[in-house]
Q: What sequence folds into this?
């Protein structure tokens, strides 16, 4: 496989999955993102991003138990994988290293 | 309160969502919905829900159309084939019976298909064939006679008088005409079927030219068109255009066109056409504008109607011709139109292939395949028990009923495909013989023949489903627990269905057998039947002229050693060539209602053919009409009490031109094939009507007599071609077409029987295998061989008898129907059915008996020892 890519929104979702460790499922991720971003996010966008990063192997999923709410539907919990973590690290390194190259400029 | 988001929206989501994601996303949606409902009310929550669902409708979430389970089903399907193949190889005998039976059935079906298709294709290749019609005549004179011809003047009159026909053509077909080529003084002679045709003939019918100008073809008198084949035969590689060919002794024609070879699927298969404008030189009467007096079998009229013209409209105006030209005739003509597509099949109007035969053949083809399928079903369901464990395991492992069904159908499919390959090879091998037998050129080429390919595909699919479906249903119905425990008695009622199938098969076999027997009886009856005259050792030779030479040659023939008798005559007592005429009897003023048929023959005619006189005396020698003989039928039809009453009375035939006293009455004899009733006939002595010499020879000396006859004939007539026929061959040729058809029907019926026997053999051997232990125990306890044989026997004989009671009335009905086409026919007596039952029992004894005997005499020690 060639270098896996990670879109901006996908990266955010991946970060949120990592942050919510073991408690990350659709609605939790959505709400976490909305809180951090301070804007409305559509659930469909979250799910599409989740599916993509799962296909890429950055997260894995498991089903939770059946509960009374959610119409008896199981939650699907996402956990970041080692690959996903490395990807996040790499992204972070990259951004950080570029950021560090920024000359000290003062904006008055 | 329970949440209930918009139902439609939810259902939509469930429908499109990828099943793997469905649960979790739906859960999320619900959770969000609940929250929003609490926060901002149901309406907003609903709106949100709908919006979310709509946003979810995008790639990645929508389930893929090709199925979402990324299971590699290839392995499963491969396993179907592996299992099928293992089954075939492990039970070779049953597989062989199945494959062989199906192959036989399919091979016959293929051959029948190609034959039937060949006939259905007849004359379909003409442009606007649906608008092409032939004029035919119903002759009403007491009874109705059907003739595919019209009076010679009809064609031209119709073309001139009415605008119905876009094109109208006359066609005068002449058989066995002498064609002479004169090249540099070297004469070559041929005997050919030729035809006079109008130029329109080639505009109506699609016979394209390869050389010559299509425009104005055959318009000029004394022009001819020949086929490429004839051109090659006559002129080799030379250019045929411009060559001269001579008809008879004096009419010359210039070849102006060469046609592409005539396709096989047409009844218009003449290869030499002459311009109709030359007709006057050949036969004055045929060319005359007032020739309405009678019909000749040589002239036909075809038309292609204008678009939109209904043939009934045309038929409505045709009676005016009868009023105008034949107002007084007792033989009332009704002119009708016959569609081109009807021509090949309507036996009434001389169609070569009755549509009945097509149906019979198709039915037999179907039955052949069907019995083979029944075999398959019987064997497969009988063996179902042996597959029970497999079914149990497959079901336990999660195999669905539908999957099992398709598995068994696949197995059937493998066998059917094998059988089809075998069938194809077989029919390919047999085809040349069939072509020769039917004198046709059929071909089986899957790659260039779409319909054949389609037929094959349909046969494979239908046979697979027909034979695979029922076993598939039975097998897939097994309850896994019972199946694995092994106490399976077969599904409820399945045994009765199997009995039903066996009965069906026996019924088919027995109906076919009854058919075979009745046909055989009838043909034997026809061949053995006393025609009422002597037909052995009689040679028919054409006359060369109708003058004094005829008498001279007769005397010369009589002088040849071992020639017993010679008679110059119109034709043999029984001939297809009938000449009927209306006549007036004695002092009656009106012509009789019925026609009387002419048989010309000199004073030796009666003696030569062994015809008996019941009253009066023979005619005296004469070259013209002087005295008459009639048959008993004529006496009867005239309403006279006894043959003696007619003697000395005068009769006036052919419009009074043939007249004289009746001097004798001959005993009735068959004057046509046995399809027709005996007609009233008269015999008289006009030399100018004679066509043949009948020569009775001593067959032992034929090797010297025949050449001597030819020598005398050729010495007298050096120009024409000599040929001869034996009378019994001529008579046999009446039945040639049906004899051919019967042979085919018989062969195919026999094959159907054979397939039935194969299945029976398979079934009995399976039964024997299953009952091995039972038989062993019975024998140990003192059961005798006959008693054990009876275990097998009683089951089958019971089924045979049931089948017999279905088959007998059915067979009787069908065969009585078939026999109606014969006027003189054999009776379908009890004997037929007794014989049939005996034969079928014998066949069953032979097929089943051997195998059951083997089982019955087996040493019980062997069968009981192993567990």
A:
């Amino acid at each position: 496989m060639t270098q896996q890519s990670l879109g901006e929104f996908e990266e955010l979702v991946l970060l949120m999955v990592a942050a919510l460790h073991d408690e990350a499922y659709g609605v939790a991720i959505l709400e976490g993102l909305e809180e951090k971003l301070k804007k409305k996010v559509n659930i469909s966008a979250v799910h599409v991003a989740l599916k993509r990063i799962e296909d890429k192997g950055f997260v894995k999923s498991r089903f939770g138990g059946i509960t009374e709410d959610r119409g008896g539907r199981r939650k699907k919990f996402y956990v970041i994988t080692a690959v996903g973590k490395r990807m996040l690290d790499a992204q972070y390194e990259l951004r950080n290293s570029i950021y560090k190259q920024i000359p000290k400029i003062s904006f008055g | 309160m329970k949440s209930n988001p918009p139902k439609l929206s939810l259902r939509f989501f469930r429908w499109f969502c990828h099943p793997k994601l469905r649960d979790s996303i739906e859960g999320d949606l619900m959770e969000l919905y609940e929250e929003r409902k609490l926060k901002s009310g149901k309406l907003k929550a609903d709106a949100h829900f709908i919006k979310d669902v709509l946003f979810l409708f995008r790639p990645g979430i929508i389930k893929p159309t090709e199925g979402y389970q990324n299971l590699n089903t290839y392995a499963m399907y491969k396993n179907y084939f592996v299992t099928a193949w293992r089954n075939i190889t492990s039970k070779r005998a049953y597989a062989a019976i199945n494959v062989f039976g199906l192959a036989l059935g399919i091979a016959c079906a293929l051959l029948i298909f190609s034959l039937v298709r060949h006939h259905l294709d007849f004359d379909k290749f003409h442009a606007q064939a649906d608008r092409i019609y032939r004029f035919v005549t119903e002759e009403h004179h007491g009874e109705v006679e059907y003739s595919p011809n019209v009076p010679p003047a009809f064609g031209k009159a119709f073309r001139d008088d009415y605008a119905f026909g876009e094109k109208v053509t006359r066609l005068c077909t002449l058989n066995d005409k002498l064609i002479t080529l004169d090249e540099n003084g070297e004469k070559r002679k041929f005997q050919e079927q030729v035809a006079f045709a109008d130029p329109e003939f080639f505009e109506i019918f699609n016979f394209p030219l390869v050389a010559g100008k299509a425009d104005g073809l055959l318009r000029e008198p004394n022009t001819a068109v020949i086929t490429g084949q004839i051109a090659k035969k006559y002129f080799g590689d030379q250019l045929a255009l411009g060559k001269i060919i001579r008809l008879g002794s004096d009419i010359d024609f210039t070849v102006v066109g060469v046609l592409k070879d005539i396709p096989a699927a047409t009844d218009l298969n003449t290869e030499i056409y002459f311009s109709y404008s030359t007709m006057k030189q050949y036969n004055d009467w045929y060319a005359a504008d007032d020739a309405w007096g009678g019909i000749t079998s040589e002239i036909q009229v075809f038309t292609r109607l204008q678009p939109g013209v209904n043939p009934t409209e045309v038929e409505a105006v045709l009676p005016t011709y009868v009023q105008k030209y034949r107002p007084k005739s007792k033989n009332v003509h009704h002119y009708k139109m016959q569609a081109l597509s009807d021509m090949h099949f309507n036996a009434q109007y001389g169609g070569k292939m009755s549509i009945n035969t097509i149906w019979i053949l198709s039915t037999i083809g179907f039955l052949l395949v069907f019995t083979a399928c029944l075999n398959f079903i019987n064997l497969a369901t009988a063996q179902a028990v042996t597959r029970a464990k497999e079914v149990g395991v497959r079901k336990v492992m999660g195999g669905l009923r539908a999957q099992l069904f398709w598995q068994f159908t696949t197995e059937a499919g493998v066998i059917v495909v094998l059988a089809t390959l075998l069938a194809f090879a077989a029919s390919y091998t047999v085809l040349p013989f069939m072509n020769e037998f039917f004198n046709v050129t059929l071909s089986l080429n899957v790659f260039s023949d779409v319909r054949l390919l389609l037929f094959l595909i349909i046969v494979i699919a239908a046979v697979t489903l027909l034979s695979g479906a029922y076993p598939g249903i039975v097998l897939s119905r097994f309850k896994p627990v019972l199946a694995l425990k092994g106490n399976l008695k077969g599904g409820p009622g399945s045994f009765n269905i199997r009995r039903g199938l066996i009965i069906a098969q026996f019924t088919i076999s027995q109906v076919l057998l009854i058919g075979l027997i009745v046909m055989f009886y009838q043909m034997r009856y026809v061949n053995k039947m006393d025609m009422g005259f002597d037909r052995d050792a009689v040679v028919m030779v054409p006359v060369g002229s109708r003058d004094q030479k005829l008498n001279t040659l007769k005397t010369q023939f009589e002088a040849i050693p071992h020639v017993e008798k010679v008679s110059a005559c119109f034709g043999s007592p029984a001939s297809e060539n009938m000449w009927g005429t209306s006549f007036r009897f004695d002092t009656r003023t009106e012509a009789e209602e019925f026609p009387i048929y002419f048989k010309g023959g000199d004073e030796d005619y009666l003696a030569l053919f062994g015809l008996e006189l019941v009253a009066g005396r023979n005619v005296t020698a004469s070259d013209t009409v002087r005295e008459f003989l009639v048959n008993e039928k004529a006496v009867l039809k005239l309403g006279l009490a006894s043959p003696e009453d007619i003697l000395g009375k005068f009769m006036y035939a052919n419009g009074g031109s043939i007249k004289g006293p009746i001097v004798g009455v001959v005993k009735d004899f068959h004057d046509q094939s046995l399809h027709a009733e005996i007609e009233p006939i008269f015999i008289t002595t006009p030399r100018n009507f004679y066509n043949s010499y009948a020569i009775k020879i001593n067959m032992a000396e034929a090797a010297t007599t025949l050449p001597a006859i030819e020598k005398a004939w050729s010495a007298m007539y050096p120009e024409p071609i000599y040929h001869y026929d034996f009378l019994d061959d001529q008579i046999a040729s009446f039945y040639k077409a049906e004899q051919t058809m019967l042979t085919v029907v018989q062969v195919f019926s026999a094959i159907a029987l054979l397939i039935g026997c194969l299945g029976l053999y398979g079934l009995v051997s399976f039964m024997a295998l299953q009952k091995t232990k039972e038989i062993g125990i019975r024998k140990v306890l003192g059961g005798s061989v006959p008693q054990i044989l009876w275990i097998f026997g009683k089951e089958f004989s019971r089924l045979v008898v049931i089948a017999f009671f279905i088959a007998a009335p059915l067979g009787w009905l069908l065969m009585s129907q078939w026999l109606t086409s014969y006027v003189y026919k054999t009776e379908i007596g009890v004997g037929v059915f007794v014989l049939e039952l005996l034969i079928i029992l014998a066949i069953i004894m032979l097929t089943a008996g051997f195998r059951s005997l083997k089982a019955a005499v087996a040493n019980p020690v062997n069968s009981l020892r192993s567990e």
The longest strand of chain B covers residues 165-183. Residues 129-349 of chain B form one domain.
